[in-house]
Amino acid sequence: MKEPVTDRSNTIIPHPELMELPPISMAKQAIAEDFQRYFSRTLGRDSEHCTNHYLYEALAYTIRDRLMERWKNTRRAYEQQHARRTCYLSLEFLIGRSLSNAMLNLDITDEVSKMLFDYGIELEELVDAEHDAGLGNGGLGRLAACFVDSCATLQLPVLGYGLRYDYGMFRQKIHNGHQTEEPDHWMRDGNPWELERPEFSQRIQFGGHTEHWCDDDGTLRVRWVATHDVLAIPYDTPVPGFNNDTVNSLRLWKSTATDEFDLEEFNAGDYSEAVAEKNNAEHITMVLYPNDASENGKELRLRQQYFLASASLQDTIRRWLRLEGNNFDTFVDKHCFQLNDTHPSIAVAELMRLLIDRHHLSWDKAWHITSHTMAYTNHTLLPEALEKWPVELFQKLLPRPLEIIKEINARFLTEASRRWPGDSDKLRNLSIIEEGHTPMVRMANLAIVGSFSVNGVAALHSQLLIEGLFREFYELWPHKFNNKTNGVTQRRWLAMCNPGMSQLIDQHIGKEWITDLGQLKKLTAYADDKTFQKNWRMEKLANKQRLAELVEKECGIHFDTSALFDIQVKRIHEYKRQLLNILHVIHLYNRIKQGDTQNWTNRCVLIGGKAAPGYAMAKLIIKLVNNVADVVNTDPDVGELLKVVFLPNYRVSAMEVICPGADLSEQISTAGKEASGTGNMKFMMNGAITIGTLDGANIEILEEVGEDNFFLFGLTAAEVTEMRKNYHPDAIIAADKDLQAVMQLLSSGHFNQFEPGLFDPIIDSISSPYDPWLTAADFRSFVDAQQQIAQAYQNQENWTRMSILNTTASGKFSTDRTMLEYNQNIWKLKQITPYVAKDK
Length: 840
Ligand code: 26Q
Hints:
Layout: H1 16-19, H2 28-42, H3 52-80, E1 85-89, E2 93-96, H4 99-106, H5 109-118, H6 123-128, E3 133-135, H7 139-153, E4 158-163, E5 171-175, E6 178-182, E7 195-196, E8 202-204, E9 209-214, E10 220-225, E11 230-240, E12 247-257, H8 260-267, H9 271-283, H10 299-324, H11 331-334, E13 335-340, H12 347-358, H13 363-373, E14 374-377, E15 388-390, H14 391-397, H15 399-419, H16 424-430, E16 433-434, E17 440-442, H17 443-450, E18 453-456, H18 459-467, H19 471-476, E19 481-483, H20 490-496, H21 499-509, H22 530-555, E20 564-569, H23 578-593, E21 603-608, H24 616-634, E22 642-647, H25 652-658, E23 664-667, H26 679-685, E24 689-692, H27 698-705, E25 711-712, H28 717-724, H29 729-735, H30 737-747, H31 760-767, H32 775-794, H33 796-808, H34 815-827
Parallel strand pairs: 1-4, 1-13, 4-12, 13-14, 14-18, 18-19, 20-21, 20-23, 21-22, 23-24, 24-25
Antiparallel strand pairs: 2-3, 5-6, 7-11, 8-11, 9-10, 11-12, 15-17, 16-17
Helix pairs in contact: 2-3, 2-5, 3-4, 4-20, 7-34, 8-9, 10-12, 12-13, 12-15, 14-15, 22-33, 23-24, 23-30, 23-32, 29-30
This protein binds ligand 26Q.
């Protein structure tokens, strides 16, 4: 084997006093001193070079210092107690900002705020100077971030493993109504939260070929040789628990070139080849893929996936060898690897490879370990989004892992054929390798075969998985399948983003809800209390004001806070049906133009979200929203009755302003298509009322809040399946005067007067009998529900009551609950209290 990549393992025994730090104080004065020192001495700034950015940076270091001892103590406690751990493997961690979150968890927001006030600085301005860490696309990435937050609060030894992308999710700009993408160089001004750990670097192999040989004992062995290696350097980010001295870690890998390239290739005289090679290595973690459904066949994406899996597993084994020596007998008892979708599922083959080729375990022992430590979470019901990679690409990039996959498959098919002798259709469906003109590796099949647990992310989703996509696997191994309904962390998504409402809640039921969201139930007693209602309404109003300011700044449109704030923010996708939303807007506009405005409720509609850069239909939907917005907002007949905006560059920090200010939450996907949704939970928690289909976690939201406090519409998943067989949108349109009028306005080119034909693909999709999303089918039911909502909003007391009841019923949707369920059924970790940090 080649040399270790960085030799910083020569640790020395330091003088004990070197490690003895005086206790760090949480008092205002001490915070002020550190802040000043960082600003003037570490950053070297003075009054002439005082920007919010540098003030933010100085504050971030001040806060980070207060996490540091806790971080080390937590690590030490896990090691000394030989704690069983879960490694959460995810290509995405959509962290957003860290400063407010760290202050909230250390419970020093007030002290910091007062300290800054003394210097005439607004805390909020420094908070706004932090760039979002946008290392994820949407739901799946943000879920990973909420999970690690909850695990730290629950004191569970869970380590997040991901990639440190130089460029996160692209910045969305709108030009003439069209989306354009700009690179998001989020670390350009540095990242005060991360700590580089080069001493734990790992070498990752790509390419080359395998050699089979016999060792002295006559055992068959395999060498993977002539590879092009890349280094993985870990960067750790602290993940603080709430007020509990636990600080867990998120370890993100950065790729760099090894040092060998210049020696070998440079000496051979091919300098440019050598430099190109270096570039290739650095490209691996350069950019996040901005698709939230799989984009097939991109070699760099497969490199990213293997790079993450291999680096994280090697890191885990390194630690195991250091603590336990070269004996893997109890490895299973101490580890679990949770795979966030199939993206890191190459880990199944990689763990086998490391155990067999490097640590000389037998196949059976290695398989026992692998198949008892891996657990897979599925996040999609769309069959076309299931990840597949050409075998040929695997052969070129990962020849040794491919051999192992083939062997896993051969053994698995032998087992399956004992269950279904001669049923070649079934075996063909189950196979990890899809045969055909271009043979493919099916990553979900690999993940299921290699895992002891397979879960969906909401009750309906898990049910549909075992009835549909994974039915045959379920027949084979029913015990593997389970549901874990998603959640969100109430620390960020209520306490931090909605301090006004949080305080109001505290005054009535205390603060326990911050770590036990079920406590919100106690607030139900105040749902009819007029004073409480008034205060609730005042907080909502203040939040709507803040949201209106954001809209004014970003879109130049005035939102009146007395209007109904009707919000849909999420990735742009046909199945999420932003189109249905905009059809309703056109319907309202048409009513106004017809003078049909008796008993009208003023409405401000906000739509936001990013389209995958290659998804033409999604981009056209954005353009339609913008064009409709232009017509509506500039028509003097419309005035305050209706406002529409497309908010550019939707991201975590925008949602922190949006969800507290929402009255109505749009969760209107075609039933059976949205695995869970998590935005729906954030809105509910902040007292918005949902208009939704029976899809994903909406079903459970409805169950918790009751049908009086939820606006249900649309076909059920079963009805969708039925209707698809015999779908005639033209007949539906012809039979519905309102829909007819909307389609007429669209076809007449009213929203694209200078861009003829632009929206034809949209018009065609709505009228097509093959429209998979059944937009026309749900139009009537949607418009009727919206009309009920408009009426309901006019009774402000009752609306407020519904709003309160949504918050009080949101207890189930905390990731604290989700994590406890993962832990009870899958991970089985002990909660561990670290040694208490020394504070003054
Ligand atoms: C895969 C291969 C190649 C390139 C990209 C991808 C890729 C990347 C991201 C595929 C899918 C995603 C993201 C999926 C996602 O966010 N799914 C959402 O997960 C949420 C959390 O469970 C659910 O609430 C949503 O319903 C689901 O859509």
